[in-house]
Design goal:
By secondary structure, this protein is of the alpha/beta class. The protein has a single domain, classed as Spore Coat Polysaccharide Biosynthesis Protein SpsA, Chain A (Alpha-Beta Complex), CATH 3.90.550. It has eight helices and nine strands. The strands form two sheets. A seven-stranded mixed β-sheet has the order 3-2-1-4-7-5-8. A two-stranded parallel sheet has the order 6-9. Strand 1, helix 1 and strand 2 form a beta-alpha-beta unit. Helix 7 packs parallel to helix 8. Bound molecules: guanosine-5'-diphosphate-alpha-D-mannose (GDD) and manganese (II) ion. The site of guanosine-5'-diphosphate-alpha-D-mannose (GDD) has 25 residues, from strand 1, strand 2 and helix 3.
Length: 242
């Protein structure tokens, strides 16, 4: 299948200590896009990882070329939400794909996102773990409970019309993402949720694709107690103001 249009997909990969994962995710991305034939670039936003992720990224840039692998590092850990905003500023595609770099999100779902988007020219496609064949693998009970609870409370308070609010494997029209970013107030993990809540308010259309989320093998999650507190604060703020 040869895509006939000029669409280009900018994949934003935020990294913090992902030295082991980055070469694999980039290889999978490149392979997936070569197979599907869609035009793409991968933008890596590293936040001064002490493990040397940036050096690995530079090596990948040499291997695959600087038109495909674009490095937009920041000097220190400034948070996931602002990493996306930073990456987006440099994106040359008319579509933006946001995903984790730790192999929890598999690039094999990207062609499904793209096809789903084209079905009804959706503004946003969200990968969902909570519909159909979607699911989570490798999380312990605690982590599953946190995710379910976070989703449940958000659903209950905000009724956003999306099944997976805290997931972060998504495709956006760039112009839509820009508008959403301008209307969002949160900075950390709660950002993902706020984006869909605002999208719903602003009347953007949403398509969902079931995905499997597989817990990382290398490295560790940056989601700690303080992020959870931030999430709850952000949620209550949204509830109070929207
Ligand atoms: N640049 C940058 N700066 N990258 C970051 C930062 C940061 O401050 N914090 C995390 N990252 C990167 C990680 O390197 C990884 O690629 C991605 O963001 C997700 O971080 P993880 O630490 O692996 O998140 P998680 O697995 O606990 O959480 C995932 O699931 C959550 C809920 O289901 C993520 O997808 C979250 O976005 C999601 O809310
Ligand atoms: Mn992860």
């Amino acid at each position: 299948m040869a895509p006939s249009n000029r669409d280009k997909y900018s994949v934003l990969l935020p990294t913090y200590n992902e030295r082991e994962n980055l070469p694999i995710i980039v290889w999978l991305l490149v392979r997936s896009f070569k197979q599907s034939g869609y035009d793409y670039e991968v933008i890596i936003i590293d936040d001064g990882s002490p493990d040397g992720t940036l050096e690995v990224a530079q090596e990948l840039e040499r291997i695959y070329g600087s038109d495909k692998i674009v490095l937009r590092p920041r000097p220190r850990k400034l948070g996931l939400g602002t990493a996306y905003v930073h990456g987006m500023k440099h994106a040359t595609g008319n579509y933006i794909i946001i995903m984790d770099a730790d192999l929890s999100h598999h690039p094999k779902f990207i062609p499904e996102f793209i096809e789903k988007q084209k079905e009804k020219s959706y503004d946003i496609i969200s990968g969902t773990r909570y519909v159909g064949s979607g699911g989570v693998y490798g999380w312990d009970f605690r982590r599953k409970l946190i995710s379910r609870t976070a989703n449940f409370i958000a659903q209950f308070l905000l009724r956003p019309g999306a099944s997976d609010l805290t997931g972060s494997f998504r495709l956006y029209k760039k112009s839509v993402l820009q508008k959403l970013v301008d209307s969002c107030v949160s900075k950390g993990y709660v950002f993902q949720m706020e984006m869909l809540v605002r999208a719903n308010q602003l009347g953007f259309t949403l398509g969902e694709v079931p995905i499997t989320f597989v817990d990382r093998v290398y490295g560790e999650s940056k989601l700690g107690g303080s992020e959870i507190v931030q999430y709850v604060k952000g949620l209550l703020y949204l509830f109070a103001t929207t």
